[in-house]
Design a protein that fits this description.
The complex is a heterodimer of chains A (245) and B (238). Chain A is globular. Chain A is mainly alpha-helical. In chain A, β1 and β2 form a beta hairpin. Chain B is mainly α and 238 residues long. Chain B folds into 2 domains: 145 residues, no CATH class; 71 residues. Chain B is built from 10 helices and no strands. Chain B is flat, with a radius of gyration of 22 Å. The two termini of chain B are 40 Å apart. The chains are: A mainly alpha (245), B mainly alpha (238). The interface between A and B is large, with 58 and 65 residues.
Chain lengths: 245, 238
Protein backbone atom coordinates (compact mmCIF):
# COMPACT_ATOMS: atom_id res chain seq x y z
CA UNK A 1 0.00 0.00 0.00
CA UNK A 2 3.03 2.29 0.25
CA UNK A 3 3.27 3.05 -3.44
CA UNK A 4 4.82 6.45 -4.14
CA UNK A 5 2.69 7.97 -6.90
CA UNK A 6 5.06 10.86 -7.48
CA UNK A 7 5.41 12.04 -11.06
CA UNK A 8 8.85 12.58 -12.62
CA UNK A 9 10.56 15.83 -11.70
CA UNK A 10 9.34 16.04 -8.08
CA UNK A 11 11.96 13.97 -6.23
CA UNK A 12 15.49 15.51 -6.25
CA UNK A 13 17.89 13.69 -8.62
CA UNK A 14 20.26 12.58 -5.87
CA UNK A 15 17.44 10.72 -4.10
CA UNK A 16 15.90 8.92 -7.05
CA UNK A 17 19.37 8.04 -8.39
CA UNK A 18 20.30 6.62 -4.98
CA UNK A 19 17.01 4.70 -4.93
CA UNK A 20 17.80 3.15 -8.30
CA UNK A 21 21.35 2.24 -7.30
CA UNK A 22 20.37 0.63 -3.99
CA UNK A 23 17.39 -1.30 -5.40
CA UNK A 24 19.44 -2.55 -8.37
CA UNK A 25 22.23 -3.66 -6.02
CA UNK A 26 19.68 -5.64 -3.98
CA UNK A 27 18.07 -7.13 -7.12
CA UNK A 28 21.43 -8.16 -8.60
CA UNK A 29 22.64 -9.50 -5.24
CA UNK A 30 19.50 -11.64 -4.92
CA UNK A 31 19.84 -12.95 -8.48
CA UNK A 32 23.53 -13.69 -7.95
CA UNK A 33 22.90 -15.49 -4.68
CA UNK A 34 20.23 -17.85 -5.97
CA UNK A 35 20.93 -20.97 -7.97
CA UNK A 36 19.73 -19.94 -11.43
CA UNK A 37 18.94 -23.49 -12.55
CA UNK A 38 16.78 -24.17 -9.50
CA UNK A 39 15.02 -20.81 -9.66
CA UNK A 40 14.35 -21.11 -13.41
CA UNK A 41 11.80 -23.83 -12.61
CA UNK A 42 9.99 -21.39 -10.32
CA UNK A 43 9.72 -18.66 -12.93
CA UNK A 44 6.03 -19.36 -13.72
CA UNK A 45 5.25 -18.98 -10.00
CA UNK A 46 7.29 -15.77 -9.71
CA UNK A 47 5.85 -14.30 -12.92
CA UNK A 48 2.28 -15.11 -11.92
CA UNK A 49 2.81 -13.36 -8.59
CA UNK A 50 4.14 -10.33 -10.47
CA UNK A 51 1.11 -10.39 -12.78
CA UNK A 52 -1.22 -10.49 -9.74
CA UNK A 53 0.60 -7.50 -8.28
CA UNK A 54 0.39 -5.66 -11.61
CA UNK A 55 -3.38 -6.04 -11.62
CA UNK A 56 -4.02 -5.29 -7.95
CA UNK A 57 -1.74 -2.24 -7.98
CA UNK A 58 -3.64 -0.85 -10.98
CA UNK A 59 -7.05 -1.13 -9.36
CA UNK A 60 -7.90 1.46 -6.69
CA UNK A 61 -10.46 0.20 -4.20
CA UNK A 62 -12.77 3.15 -4.69
CA UNK A 63 -14.17 3.69 -1.21
CA UNK A 64 -10.76 4.55 0.30
CA UNK A 65 -7.81 6.25 -1.46
CA UNK A 66 -5.74 3.07 -1.50
CA UNK A 67 -4.77 0.09 -3.61
CA UNK A 68 -3.43 -3.25 -2.46
CA UNK A 69 0.08 -4.38 -3.41
CA UNK A 70 0.24 -8.03 -2.29
CA UNK A 71 4.01 -7.54 -1.92
CA UNK A 72 3.96 -9.31 1.45
CA UNK A 73 2.05 -12.20 -0.17
CA UNK A 74 4.78 -12.31 -2.84
CA UNK A 75 7.42 -12.49 -0.11
CA UNK A 76 5.58 -15.40 1.51
CA UNK A 77 4.89 -17.38 -1.66
CA UNK A 78 8.09 -16.90 -3.68
CA UNK A 79 10.45 -15.96 -0.87
CA UNK A 80 11.63 -12.59 0.48
CA UNK A 81 14.56 -12.14 -1.95
CA UNK A 82 12.68 -13.11 -5.09
CA UNK A 83 9.68 -11.16 -3.77
CA UNK A 84 11.89 -8.05 -3.87
CA UNK A 85 12.81 -8.84 -7.51
CA UNK A 86 9.08 -9.24 -8.30
CA UNK A 87 8.44 -5.80 -6.78
CA UNK A 88 11.14 -4.26 -9.02
CA UNK A 89 9.68 -5.87 -12.16
CA UNK A 90 6.14 -4.74 -11.30
CA UNK A 91 7.20 -1.17 -10.51
CA UNK A 92 9.18 -0.93 -13.72
CA UNK A 93 6.26 -2.08 -15.89
CA UNK A 94 3.82 0.21 -14.04
CA UNK A 95 6.15 3.18 -14.45
CA UNK A 96 6.42 2.56 -18.21
CA UNK A 97 2.64 2.80 -18.33
CA UNK A 98 2.65 6.10 -16.42
CA UNK A 99 1.63 4.71 -13.00
CA UNK A 100 4.31 6.39 -10.87
CA UNK A 101 7.24 8.19 -12.45
CA UNK A 102 10.01 6.28 -14.22
CA UNK A 103 12.52 8.07 -11.98
CA UNK A 104 10.89 6.83 -8.76
CA UNK A 105 11.01 3.12 -9.70
CA UNK A 106 14.02 2.60 -7.42
CA UNK A 107 12.41 4.36 -4.46
CA UNK A 108 9.15 2.50 -5.00
CA UNK A 109 11.04 -0.79 -5.20
CA UNK A 110 12.73 -0.06 -1.88
CA UNK A 111 9.50 1.08 -0.24
CA UNK A 112 7.34 -1.83 -1.44
CA UNK A 113 10.28 -4.26 -1.39
CA UNK A 114 10.41 -3.80 2.39
CA UNK A 115 6.89 -5.31 2.48
CA UNK A 116 8.09 -8.37 0.54
CA UNK A 117 11.22 -8.75 2.67
CA UNK A 118 9.57 -8.20 6.07
CA UNK A 119 6.42 -10.11 5.11
CA UNK A 120 8.38 -13.09 3.77
CA UNK A 121 10.98 -13.27 6.55
CA UNK A 122 8.45 -12.55 9.32
CA UNK A 123 6.08 -15.24 8.08
CA UNK A 124 8.82 -17.86 8.06
CA UNK A 125 10.09 -16.91 11.49
CA UNK A 126 6.77 -17.02 13.33
CA UNK A 127 4.84 -19.59 11.27
CA UNK A 128 5.87 -22.55 13.41
CA UNK A 129 4.93 -20.78 16.64
CA UNK A 130 1.63 -19.14 15.66
CA UNK A 131 0.38 -21.12 12.65
CA UNK A 132 -0.11 -19.97 9.07
CA UNK A 133 -3.07 -17.59 9.30
CA UNK A 134 -2.10 -15.60 12.46
CA UNK A 135 1.48 -15.42 11.13
CA UNK A 136 0.20 -14.04 7.84
CA UNK A 137 -1.83 -11.34 9.58
CA UNK A 138 1.03 -10.36 11.90
CA UNK A 139 3.65 -10.36 9.10
CA UNK A 140 1.51 -8.36 6.67
CA UNK A 141 0.55 -5.82 9.35
CA UNK A 142 4.16 -5.30 10.47
CA UNK A 143 5.36 -5.14 6.85
CA UNK A 144 2.74 -2.56 5.84
CA UNK A 145 3.30 -0.42 8.94
CA UNK A 146 7.05 -0.45 8.45
CA UNK A 147 7.01 0.33 4.73
CA UNK A 148 4.42 3.11 5.13
CA UNK A 149 6.37 4.64 8.03
CA UNK A 150 9.61 4.55 6.03
CA UNK A 151 7.83 6.11 3.03
CA UNK A 152 6.31 8.93 5.09
CA UNK A 153 9.63 9.68 6.84
CA UNK A 154 11.43 9.79 3.50
CA UNK A 155 8.80 12.00 1.83
CA UNK A 156 8.83 14.33 4.83
CA UNK A 157 12.64 14.46 4.61
CA UNK A 158 12.56 15.59 0.98
CA UNK A 159 9.76 18.05 1.73
CA UNK A 160 6.98 16.43 -0.28
CA UNK A 161 4.67 15.78 2.69
CA UNK A 162 4.19 17.52 6.01
CA UNK A 163 4.59 15.07 8.89
CA UNK A 164 3.38 17.67 11.41
CA UNK A 165 -0.08 17.93 9.87
CA UNK A 166 -0.22 14.75 7.79
CA UNK A 167 -1.01 16.91 4.77
CA UNK A 168 0.14 15.46 1.44
CA UNK A 169 0.47 11.83 2.59
CA UNK A 170 -2.82 10.72 1.07
CA UNK A 171 -1.93 12.61 -2.08
CA UNK A 172 0.79 10.06 -2.53
CA UNK A 173 -1.62 7.18 -2.26
CA UNK A 174 -4.84 8.60 -3.66
CA UNK A 175 -6.29 7.96 -7.11
CA UNK A 176 -8.32 9.99 -9.47
CA UNK A 177 -11.24 7.58 -9.23
CA UNK A 178 -11.51 7.89 -5.45
CA UNK A 179 -13.66 10.94 -5.38
CA UNK A 180 -11.51 12.43 -2.60
CA UNK A 181 -11.27 16.17 -2.30
CA UNK A 182 -13.32 19.19 -1.34
CA UNK A 183 -13.40 21.24 1.86
CA UNK A 184 -15.32 20.94 5.11
CA UNK A 185 -16.15 23.30 7.94
CA UNK A 186 -13.50 23.92 10.60
CA UNK A 187 -10.67 22.68 8.42
CA UNK A 188 -7.64 24.73 7.53
CA UNK A 189 -7.37 26.33 4.14
CA UNK A 190 -5.44 24.02 1.84
CA UNK A 191 -6.33 20.85 3.73
CA UNK A 192 -7.57 18.03 1.53
CA UNK A 193 -10.73 16.48 2.93
CA UNK A 194 -11.55 12.78 2.62
CA UNK A 195 -15.09 11.64 3.16
CA UNK A 196 -15.89 8.26 4.73
CA UNK A 197 -19.66 7.91 4.64
CA UNK A 198 -20.97 11.03 6.35
CA UNK A 199 -17.68 11.84 8.14
CA UNK A 200 -15.19 14.28 6.63
CA UNK A 201 -11.57 13.96 7.79
CA UNK A 202 -8.33 15.76 7.00
CA UNK A 203 -4.64 15.62 7.96
CA UNK A 204 -3.46 12.84 10.28
CA UNK A 205 -7.03 11.76 11.13
CA UNK A 206 -7.65 10.90 7.48
CA UNK A 207 -4.19 9.31 7.13
CA UNK A 208 -4.73 7.06 10.15
CA UNK A 209 -8.21 5.99 9.06
CA UNK A 210 -7.00 5.12 5.54
CA UNK A 211 -3.90 3.39 6.92
CA UNK A 212 -5.99 1.40 9.40
CA UNK A 213 -8.58 0.36 6.81
CA UNK A 214 -5.87 -0.43 4.28
CA UNK A 215 -3.88 -2.62 6.66
CA UNK A 216 -6.99 -4.49 7.83
CA UNK A 217 -8.13 -5.09 4.27
CA UNK A 218 -4.77 -6.21 2.87
CA UNK A 219 -4.04 -8.39 5.93
CA UNK A 220 -7.50 -9.99 5.76
CA UNK A 221 -7.36 -10.73 2.03
CA UNK A 222 -3.77 -12.01 2.23
CA UNK A 223 -4.74 -14.27 5.16
CA UNK A 224 -7.79 -15.60 3.26
CA UNK A 225 -5.67 -16.24 0.15
CA UNK A 226 -3.11 -18.06 2.31
CA UNK A 227 -5.89 -20.11 3.95
CA UNK A 228 -7.06 -21.10 0.47
CA UNK A 229 -3.52 -22.14 -0.49
CA UNK A 230 -3.09 -24.10 2.75
CA UNK A 231 -6.24 -26.05 1.91
CA UNK A 232 -5.59 -26.63 -1.80
CA UNK A 233 -1.84 -26.44 -2.36
CA UNK A 234 0.04 -26.36 0.99
CA UNK A 235 3.26 -27.16 -0.87
CA UNK A 236 3.21 -23.60 -2.26
CA UNK A 237 3.18 -22.07 1.22
CA UNK A 238 5.52 -24.38 3.10
CA UNK A 239 9.03 -22.89 3.22
CA UNK A 240 11.70 -24.89 1.45
CA UNK A 241 14.94 -25.52 3.28
CA UNK A 242 17.27 -24.42 0.46
CA UNK A 243 18.39 -20.82 0.13
CA UNK A 244 17.01 -20.17 -3.35
CA UNK A 245 13.81 -18.53 -2.22
CA UNK B 1 -4.65 -1.21 -17.42
CA UNK B 2 -4.48 -1.00 -21.23
CA UNK B 3 -1.50 -3.36 -21.58
CA UNK B 4 -3.38 -5.41 -24.18
CA UNK B 5 -4.31 -2.32 -26.23
CA UNK B 6 -0.77 -0.94 -26.07
CA UNK B 7 0.56 -4.35 -27.11
CA UNK B 8 -1.83 -4.44 -30.08
CA UNK B 9 -0.75 -0.93 -31.14
CA UNK B 10 2.91 -1.89 -30.96
CA UNK B 11 2.50 -5.17 -32.84
CA UNK B 12 0.09 -4.10 -35.58
CA UNK B 13 1.47 -0.61 -36.33
CA UNK B 14 3.20 -0.01 -39.66
CA UNK B 15 4.54 3.53 -39.24
CA UNK B 16 8.17 4.51 -39.67
CA UNK B 17 8.61 4.41 -35.90
CA UNK B 18 7.19 0.90 -35.70
CA UNK B 19 9.74 -0.23 -38.30
CA UNK B 20 12.70 1.39 -36.52
CA UNK B 21 14.90 -0.80 -34.31
CA UNK B 22 14.70 -1.00 -30.53
CA UNK B 23 18.17 0.49 -30.08
CA UNK B 24 17.39 3.74 -31.91
CA UNK B 25 14.01 4.11 -30.22
CA UNK B 26 15.46 3.47 -26.76
CA UNK B 27 18.15 6.06 -27.50
CA UNK B 28 15.53 8.61 -28.55
CA UNK B 29 13.34 7.98 -25.50
CA UNK B 30 16.40 8.25 -23.27
CA UNK B 31 17.32 11.59 -24.91
CA UNK B 32 13.77 12.83 -24.44
CA UNK B 33 13.65 11.69 -20.79
CA UNK B 34 16.99 13.36 -19.99
CA UNK B 35 15.87 16.52 -21.79
CA UNK B 36 12.58 16.59 -19.84
CA UNK B 37 14.27 15.92 -16.51
CA UNK B 38 17.07 18.42 -17.09
CA UNK B 39 14.94 21.25 -18.39
CA UNK B 40 13.75 23.96 -16.04
CA UNK B 41 12.02 26.06 -18.66
CA UNK B 42 8.28 25.88 -19.29
CA UNK B 43 8.68 26.84 -22.96
CA UNK B 44 11.31 24.18 -23.60
CA UNK B 45 9.18 21.55 -21.87
CA UNK B 46 6.15 22.70 -23.86
CA UNK B 47 8.17 22.27 -27.05
CA UNK B 48 9.31 18.79 -26.00
CA UNK B 49 5.71 17.77 -25.28
CA UNK B 50 4.66 19.19 -28.66
CA UNK B 51 7.42 17.09 -30.30
CA UNK B 52 6.24 14.01 -28.43
CA UNK B 53 2.62 14.56 -29.45
CA UNK B 54 3.76 14.97 -33.07
CA UNK B 55 5.69 11.69 -32.78
CA UNK B 56 2.57 9.94 -31.44
CA UNK B 57 0.60 11.42 -34.32
CA UNK B 58 3.20 10.30 -36.86
CA UNK B 59 3.19 6.80 -35.34
CA UNK B 60 -0.64 6.76 -35.75
CA UNK B 61 -1.24 5.50 -32.21
CA UNK B 62 -4.72 5.40 -30.70
CA UNK B 63 -4.90 8.65 -28.77
CA UNK B 64 -7.86 7.42 -26.71
CA UNK B 65 -5.67 4.83 -24.95
CA UNK B 66 -2.72 7.20 -24.58
CA UNK B 67 -4.90 9.97 -23.11
CA UNK B 68 -6.43 7.48 -20.67
CA UNK B 69 -2.97 6.35 -19.52
CA UNK B 70 -1.78 9.96 -19.32
CA UNK B 71 -4.53 10.73 -16.85
CA UNK B 72 -2.53 9.07 -14.04
CA UNK B 73 0.68 11.15 -14.34
CA UNK B 74 -1.34 14.27 -15.14
CA UNK B 75 -3.53 13.86 -12.06
CA UNK B 76 -0.62 13.22 -9.69
CA UNK B 77 1.41 16.04 -11.24
CA UNK B 78 -1.57 18.33 -10.74
CA UNK B 79 -1.70 17.50 -7.01
CA UNK B 80 1.90 18.64 -6.57
CA UNK B 81 1.47 21.48 -9.03
CA UNK B 82 -1.35 22.89 -6.86
CA UNK B 83 1.18 23.33 -4.05
CA UNK B 84 3.75 24.80 -6.45
CA UNK B 85 1.24 27.20 -8.00
CA UNK B 86 1.36 29.09 -4.67
CA UNK B 87 5.02 29.92 -5.46
CA UNK B 88 4.50 30.81 -9.12
CA UNK B 89 2.47 29.54 -12.04
CA UNK B 90 5.66 28.49 -13.87
CA UNK B 91 6.71 26.23 -10.97
CA UNK B 92 3.32 24.51 -11.11
CA UNK B 93 3.42 24.12 -14.89
CA UNK B 94 6.96 22.70 -14.66
CA UNK B 95 5.72 19.87 -12.41
CA UNK B 96 2.80 19.07 -14.73
CA UNK B 97 4.91 19.22 -17.89
CA UNK B 98 7.70 17.07 -16.44
CA UNK B 99 5.35 14.36 -15.14
CA UNK B 100 3.21 14.25 -18.28
CA UNK B 101 6.15 14.62 -20.68
CA UNK B 102 8.11 11.73 -19.16
CA UNK B 103 5.03 9.50 -19.32
CA UNK B 104 4.43 10.51 -22.96
CA UNK B 105 8.02 9.50 -23.80
CA UNK B 106 7.78 6.03 -22.24
CA UNK B 107 4.32 5.47 -23.74
CA UNK B 108 5.71 6.32 -27.17
CA UNK B 109 8.28 3.56 -26.80
CA UNK B 110 5.66 1.03 -25.69
CA UNK B 111 3.13 2.02 -28.37
CA UNK B 112 5.68 1.53 -31.15
CA UNK B 113 7.77 -1.40 -29.88
CA UNK B 114 6.48 -4.86 -28.93
CA UNK B 115 7.50 -5.87 -25.40
CA UNK B 116 9.25 -9.00 -26.63
CA UNK B 117 11.61 -6.88 -28.75
CA UNK B 118 12.42 -4.69 -25.75
CA UNK B 119 13.07 -7.78 -23.60
CA UNK B 120 15.21 -9.31 -26.36
CA UNK B 121 17.34 -6.16 -26.49
CA UNK B 122 17.63 -6.00 -22.71
CA UNK B 123 18.54 -9.68 -22.46
CA UNK B 124 21.94 -8.82 -23.91
CA UNK B 125 22.70 -6.59 -20.92
CA UNK B 126 20.60 -7.82 -17.98
CA UNK B 127 20.83 -11.11 -16.05
CA UNK B 128 18.97 -13.86 -17.94
CA UNK B 129 16.86 -14.63 -14.89
CA UNK B 130 15.59 -11.06 -14.65
CA UNK B 131 14.72 -10.99 -18.36
CA UNK B 132 12.90 -14.31 -17.96
CA UNK B 133 10.85 -12.88 -15.08
CA UNK B 134 9.99 -9.80 -17.19
CA UNK B 135 9.02 -11.97 -20.17
CA UNK B 136 6.91 -14.46 -18.21
CA UNK B 137 5.27 -11.68 -16.15
CA UNK B 138 4.14 -10.17 -19.42
CA UNK B 139 2.79 -13.51 -20.67
CA UNK B 140 1.23 -14.33 -17.29
CA UNK B 141 -0.53 -10.97 -17.19
CA UNK B 142 -2.66 -11.91 -20.20
CA UNK B 143 -3.40 -15.41 -18.84
CA UNK B 144 -4.41 -13.89 -15.50
CA UNK B 145 -6.51 -11.14 -17.06
CA UNK B 146 -8.42 -13.70 -19.11
CA UNK B 147 -8.96 -15.96 -16.09
CA UNK B 148 -9.96 -13.06 -13.84
CA UNK B 149 -12.48 -11.72 -16.37
CA UNK B 150 -14.35 -15.01 -16.70
CA UNK B 151 -14.20 -15.75 -12.96
CA UNK B 152 -15.62 -12.33 -11.98
CA UNK B 153 -18.39 -12.78 -14.57
CA UNK B 154 -19.22 -16.21 -13.11
CA UNK B 155 -19.14 -14.79 -9.58
CA UNK B 156 -21.65 -12.07 -10.48
CA UNK B 157 -23.95 -14.49 -12.35
CA UNK B 158 -24.00 -16.88 -9.40
CA UNK B 159 -24.67 -14.11 -6.86
CA UNK B 160 -21.18 -14.02 -5.36
CA UNK B 161 -20.96 -10.23 -5.47
CA UNK B 162 -23.25 -7.83 -3.63
CA UNK B 163 -22.64 -4.09 -3.70
CA UNK B 164 -23.46 -3.57 0.00
CA UNK B 165 -22.21 -6.82 1.55
CA UNK B 166 -18.54 -5.95 2.02
CA UNK B 167 -17.70 -8.93 4.28
CA UNK B 168 -19.04 -11.42 1.76
CA UNK B 169 -17.32 -9.57 -1.11
CA UNK B 170 -13.94 -9.61 0.67
CA UNK B 171 -14.30 -13.33 1.45
CA UNK B 172 -15.34 -14.22 -2.09
CA UNK B 173 -12.70 -11.96 -3.62
CA UNK B 174 -9.97 -13.64 -1.56
CA UNK B 175 -11.18 -17.07 -2.70
CA UNK B 176 -11.33 -15.76 -6.28
CA UNK B 177 -7.79 -14.38 -6.09
CA UNK B 178 -6.56 -17.69 -4.67
CA UNK B 179 -8.39 -19.74 -7.28
CA UNK B 180 -7.28 -17.55 -10.19
CA UNK B 181 -3.72 -17.48 -8.91
CA UNK B 182 -3.63 -21.24 -8.60
CA UNK B 183 -5.28 -21.93 -11.95
CA UNK B 184 -3.16 -19.34 -13.76
CA UNK B 185 -0.05 -20.65 -12.04
CA UNK B 186 -0.78 -24.14 -13.36
CA UNK B 187 -1.42 -22.74 -16.85
CA UNK B 188 1.78 -20.72 -16.65
CA UNK B 189 3.70 -23.84 -15.59
CA UNK B 190 2.27 -25.68 -18.59
CA UNK B 191 3.29 -22.79 -20.85
CA UNK B 192 6.79 -22.90 -19.36
CA UNK B 193 7.05 -26.65 -20.03
CA UNK B 194 5.98 -26.06 -23.62
CA UNK B 195 8.71 -23.42 -23.91
CA UNK B 196 11.23 -25.96 -22.55
CA UNK B 197 10.04 -28.60 -25.03
CA UNK B 198 10.59 -26.13 -27.85
CA UNK B 199 14.19 -25.60 -26.77
CA UNK B 200 13.91 -22.64 -24.43
CA UNK B 201 16.81 -22.53 -21.96
CA UNK B 202 16.52 -19.06 -20.44
CA UNK B 203 16.90 -15.60 -21.93
CA UNK B 204 15.77 -14.61 -25.41
CA UNK B 205 18.00 -15.57 -28.31
CA UNK B 206 18.73 -12.35 -30.18
CA UNK B 207 18.61 -12.89 -33.93
CA UNK B 208 18.58 -9.23 -34.95
CA UNK B 209 21.83 -7.33 -35.32
CA UNK B 210 21.31 -4.06 -33.44
CA UNK B 211 24.19 -2.31 -35.16
CA UNK B 212 22.64 -2.86 -38.60
CA UNK B 213 20.63 0.30 -39.01
CA UNK B 214 17.98 0.95 -41.66
CA UNK B 215 16.30 4.08 -43.01
CA UNK B 216 13.76 4.33 -40.12
CA UNK B 217 16.64 4.07 -37.60
CA UNK B 218 18.41 6.89 -39.41
CA UNK B 219 15.36 9.13 -39.05
CA UNK B 220 15.00 8.28 -35.33
CA UNK B 221 18.71 8.90 -34.64
CA UNK B 222 18.54 12.20 -36.57
CA UNK B 223 15.64 13.17 -34.29
CA UNK B 224 17.78 12.29 -31.25
CA UNK B 225 20.55 14.55 -32.53
CA UNK B 226 18.06 17.36 -33.15
CA UNK B 227 16.63 17.03 -29.63
CA UNK B 228 20.11 17.13 -28.07
CA UNK B 229 21.17 20.10 -30.23
CA UNK B 230 17.89 21.87 -29.43
CA UNK B 231 18.46 21.41 -25.73
CA UNK B 232 22.07 22.63 -25.86
CA UNK B 233 21.15 25.69 -27.94
CA UNK B 234 18.36 26.64 -25.58
CA UNK B 235 20.76 26.39 -22.62
CA UNK B 236 23.22 28.71 -24.35
CA UNK B 237 20.56 31.18 -25.44
CA UNK B 238 18.65 31.56 -22.18
Amino acid sequence: MSHIHLPDGVVPTIWWAAGYVISLIVVFAVLKRVNADKVRGKIPEIAMMAAVMLITMSVPLGFIPFHMNFAALAGMLVGPGLGFVVVFVVNFILALLGHGGITVVGLNTLSIGVEALVGGIGFRLIKVKFGSIPSTIISVTVALLLSTTLMVIFLNFIGVVNMQSGEGILHIESHEEDGAGGHGEGLHHGDTVYSFGGIALAGWAAVLVVLFLGIILESAITALVMRFFMKVRPDMVEPTPHKDR
Amino acid sequence: MHLAEIDRMASSGTSLFHRAGVFSKLLMVLCLLVAIMASGDVLVLGMLIAILLSLHLAARVQFKEIVHLLFYPFFFSLLFALMKFQESWTSGLLVIFKGTGAALATLFLLATTPWVEIFAFLSAYLPGLLVDIFLFTYRSFFILLDQMGSLLRNMRIRGGYHTFNIVMNVKNMAAAVGLVLLHSFEMSQRMYRIYLLRGYDGGIPVARRWWKLGYPDGVVIALCVLIVIGMVISWKLL
